[in-house]
Design brief:
Blueprint: H1 4-8, H2 14-22, H3 24-32, H4 42-58, H5 63-72, H6 77-86, H7 89-103, E1 106-117, E2 123-124, E3 133-143, E4 147-154, H8 164-178, E5 184-191, E6 196-199, E7 203-204, H9 205-228, H10 249-255
Parallel strand pairs: 4-5
Antiparallel strand pairs: 1-2, 1-3, 3-4, 5-6, 5-7
Helix pairs in contact: 2-3, 2-9, 3-9, 4-5, 4-6, 8-9
Length: 267
């Protein structure tokens, strides 16, 4: 059973868990104090724009129409140019998915599909008061052979040392709870800038039940424990990309280190 501290901070999500483990101060800003982001990172805006355009294209909107509409919502020419550099990955992926669907017997497509489970891993509504863990699948395909492919879109650079399972294990737990007839799960990361999809080996439902579920619940407990002592900054390389960096004392210390000036340095 979940601890009281874990229940207090529910519902959890993949980003909420990782935030609690990475920086309790950021967790308090976002999820406890609910402070509005002082600034939104350009990477976040561009990522959301690409995700939105991908979603529309996969649902049948013509590429030119989708990208023009989304591009116009970006606030600067620089961000629009960065968006333009990523756009070619959208038709490349749509073509790949079209070929993929022709080779397999797809029963159902899931685009931006929301899922949630209670603490006992039974399904519930995304915004229900008893939701304990939840997430939104970027893309999924249910096949007639009782298998399911899950794809997560990534606009950033591939991070060395990460694995597909690290990125998608929470979604796999949610999907296994929602689609209990599924016996195999294919987990894929769509690296948009590289125009490639990295797939895991097929994950059987038994592995999700016996390994991924306990790991996820342990991570939630660890995150709850990390934030239980209050807002404690954990400075690191992520501070420069944090939307709360202007109000976080730890981030200010990193960015504005005092420098002692010595007149002898001029000699």
């Amino acid at each position: 059973m979940p601890s009281t501290r874990a229940l207090i901070h529910a519902p959890w999500s993949a980003s909420k868990v990782s935030t609690g483990l990475r920086c309790p101060q950021l967790f308090h800003f976002k999820y406890i104090q609910k402070v509005k982001e002082p600034e939104v990172m350009p990477e976040a805006r561009i990522g959301k724009a690409i995700h939105k355009s991908l979603e529309q294209v996969l649902m049948g909107t013509p590429l030119a129409e989708s990208t023009a509409q989304v591009r116009a919502e970006l606030p600067s020419e620089i961000e629009q140019m960065r968006f333009d550099n990523l756009v070619p990955g959208i038709p490349a992926f749509a073509t790949r998915i079209g070929q993929f669907r022709r080779r397999r017997r797809v029963a159902r497509q899931l685009v931006e599909y929301s899922l949630a489970v209670r603490e006992d891993l039974t399904t519930t509504q995304f915004y229900a008061g008893d939701a304990y863990y939840r997430g939104v699948l970027d893309l999924g395909y249910l096949f007639e052979d009782d298998s399911l492919a899950l794809v997560d879109h990534k606009t950033g650079a591939r991070i060395p040392g990460t694995t597909v399972t690290d990125q998608l294990e929470g979604y796999a737990v949610l999907a296994a709870s929602a689609f209990r007839h599924v016996r195999r799960f294919w987990l894929g990361i769509h690296w948009i800038a590289e125009r490639s999809v990295e797939w895991s080996t097929p994950v059987p439902a038994e592995l999700i039940r016996d390994t991924l579920v306990p790991d996820l619940l342990d991570n939630i407990e660890a995150a709850a424990l990390a934030v239980d002592d209050g807002p404690r900054p954990n400075a690191g390389s992520w501070c420069d990309r944090c939307s709360y960096r202007t109000i976080c004392p730890a981030s200010k210390d990193i960015r504005y280190e005092p420098v002692e000036y010595d007149e002898d340095d001029e000699d």
